[in-house]
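Dig into what follows:

_____
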Amino acid sequence: MLDQLDRTFVALADADRRAMLSHLAHGPAAAGDLARMLDMPISTFLHHVVLLAEAGLVTSYVENATRMVASAPTALDEAADWLSTQGLRRLTATPDGGAAVDIFFGGATTKRPMLAFW
């Protein structure tokens, strides 16, 4: 059985669902319009909406006889909190054209020159 955090990562594992979330970051959209924009059959689109809704990433409602889909603004909080406690690293560019590693741990970010880790 999947817990909420697992459902979030399963939902985010699919490129089509991430594309849907990217579009929804700009505001709610009519399901049919978003399905056409993503060049996706409505049945496939609605399947993705169900998976995103089960993960708590979107909500779906009817407005003036139109099925609307909206992103849930705090849905990624649990995943972000978990990631911040894992000491995860991200490679970023530095202003001088070099590279640095951002270390995420306990909600804080520390930037270190890349060579410090290699």
